[in-house]
Amino acid sequence: MTDVAFDRAVGDPTPVQPASRPNLDKGFNPLTMILFFGILAAGLLYVAYSIYADVDATGTRVTSYVPFILLFVALLIALGFEFVNGFHDTANAVATVIYTHSLPAEFAVMWSGLFNFLGVLTSTGAVAFGIVSLLPVELILQVGSSAGFAMVFALLIAAILWNLGTWYFGLPASSSHTLIGSIIGVGVANAMMRSRDGTSGVDWGKATEIGYALLLSPLVGFICAAVLLLLLKVIIKNPALYAAPEGNKAPPIWIRGLLILTCTGVSFAHGSNDGQKGMGLIMLILIGTVPTAYALNRALPQSQVAKFQQISDAASKVVAAKGAGHSIIGDPRPAVTQYITSHHITEGTYPSLSVLVKDVGDQVVKYGSLNKVPAEVVGNTRNDMYLTSEAIRFLMKDKENDLNKEEIAALNAYKGGLDSATKFIPTWVKVAVAIALGLGTMIGWKRIVVTVGEKIGKTHLTYAQGASAELVAAGTIFAADTFGLPVSTTHVLSSGVAGAMAANGSGLQVATIRNMVMAWVLTLPVAILLSGTLYVIFSRLF
Question: Cβ of 198: how many Cβ atoms within 10 Å?
Fold first, then answer.
């Protein structure tokens, strides 16, 4: 029975207008574009001034501008990745409000951009350093070298190229997935160039942990959105919630409010999770180019430095006891680095780590404050702290460590103190990433929006389907942010739409689903191959 026939059968002679396609071609007015470029210019000036102020505060005299030129280029590439991430991923957040006529397209993307911006500013930073820990430790320790720059440029450019390629074809591929693949590619290529097994160039434990989050998130999105839609049908009997929009008519106010709320939640969650991926890489760039200002957290209060000395003593006793009866001659760092790379405890692991823990403690006691560490040694102090922290992280996971609960607690506290000194994000970095991600949502969003809104299901998106997909996406991303795991907004939201369509019996467009799965499957291997190839090329050029 047609809609018209049905209406007549129930006594309503007015035919129901089929849902119409939203207007996606209306451009921004000149005032909006002026505001866009104004914010962009203000952001660049703020970044430049912040770097100048941070370097000036260290009292270091600038003798060469070459590091700052490299820094400028690297920052542009890193912020470019976040900009592309904005228009590639956040289209998923606005598709539902646009296709249910809850918000006009041009307003929806600006609204989403604002809450992406706020999400980045309030993020924890846990995801940022989870991404960084995937990189080979030797490259992190030498991030200011030519190999370090080759690493950063290769993985960022590879991620940008794949993101742009999938965006061009309107495929909702994952920026998170792409970045992880790029990092793995660099790690494998670096190991093979050093005549080691390619599998030794990556922290596969961390990669597996992140891989599970990325691979399971689409399944979570599909299943949870389907279940949520079915629950809504049981709990809320209002038929308006399960109908497609009539023509260009906006939904009832309560449904509209719900859809705008879910769009806001996804946008905020996307900013809080995805924005951090660029932050971690920007911090690596800053440490490599301007270590005097960014290698150590000079803003750490004196009280925390005093507390660090106490937990350092406790950790030193634990490690020294494990290494009792063994001694080392010379530099302990190669043995500790070897353990981090191989994850195999040898008779030199504990005694070498014991010496390194003592060296770090002596350096902090000697200078009394991180702010007083001399410019010429700040990089070495930071590397020692980072190396010690990573070794302890692996030791606590290692089944061969023979540590009891009290010893693990002491080492955990010590690691927390080390991380507070080395794993920090200045406010201006958050602001810069927030601007790049927020402005990125306003450009190039249409291709992915059309795919999510029109090409996943066979029928027009209903209010309940859009709300179910958005609620699940926001919840999944917030949970991942809490646990410091990167997940794909694209995968969760698009699979959530598919799940809601399937649960409603709306049918799925097999060609679109096939292409999405293909992009999902190919992202990792293509990103690995692309970044590994670029790393080899850049290593020989730099």
Answer: 15
Place of tokens 């992880």: 180
What contacts 391, CB < 8 A, 6 or more positions away?
Answer: 336, 339, 340, 349, 353, 356
Looking at the whole model, is its pTM more than 0.70?
yes
- Phi (first) and psi of residue 69, to 5 degrees: -70, -45
Q: How far apart are the first and last CA of the chain?
A: 70
The DSSP 8-state label assigned to residue 330 in this structure reads S
Gap between the Cα atoms of 161 and 7, Å rounded: 51
Specify the residue for token string 């500790």: 336
CB contact set of 426 (below 8 Å; sequence gap of 6+): 50, 54, 294
Distance in angstroms (rounded) separating the CA atoms of residues 318 and 321: 5
Comparing CA positions, the residue from 474, 442, 297, 455 lying closest to residue 381 is: 297
| Residue from 358, 315, 356, 316 nearest 334 by CA | 356
Contact present, 348 and 319 (Cβ < 8 Å): no
Residue ranges in 143-203 assigned as alpha helix (H): 146-168, 175-193
Please name which of 326, 259, 173, 274 lies closest in space to residue 461, comparing C-alpha atoms: 259
Q: What are phi and psi of 508, to 5 degrees?
A: -120, 145
Beta bridge partners of 454: none
Distance CA 47, CA 392 (A): 34
Please state, in angstroms and as integers, the Cα–Cα distance from residue 156 to each residue in 73, 141, 243, 531, following that order.
12, 19, 43, 8
- From first to last of the 542 residues of the chain, give the pLDDT tens digit: 444 433 433 344 444 455 567 777 776 677 777 888 898 899 989 999 999 998 888 877 777 787 788 888 889 999 999 898 887 777 777 888 888 888 988 889 889 888 989 999 988 777 788 777 777 777 787 777 788 888 889 999 999 999 898 888 877 777 878 888 898 898 888 888 876 655 555 666 666 766 676 677 788 888 999 999 999 888 888 887 787 777 777 788 888 888 898 889 888 888 887 888 888 889 888 888 888 888 888 777 777 777 888 888 888 888 888 877 667 777 888 888 888 877 788 888 888 998 898 888 888 888 877 777 887 788 888 889 999 998 998 888 777 677 788 888 899 999 998 988 888 899 999 999 999 988 888 787 888 888 888 888 888 788 888 888 888 887 877 777 677 666 677 778 888 888 888 888 877 888 888 888 887 788 888 999 999 999 999 998 87
Are the C-beta atoms of 136 and 202 separated by less than 8 Å? yes
> Tokens representing 281?
């890489």
Q: How far apart are CA 307 and CA 318, in angstroms?
A: 17
Helix (H) or strand (E) holding 13: none
Q: What Å distances lie between residue 201 and 32, 49, 148, 352, 506, CA to CA?
A: 46, 37, 14, 22, 46
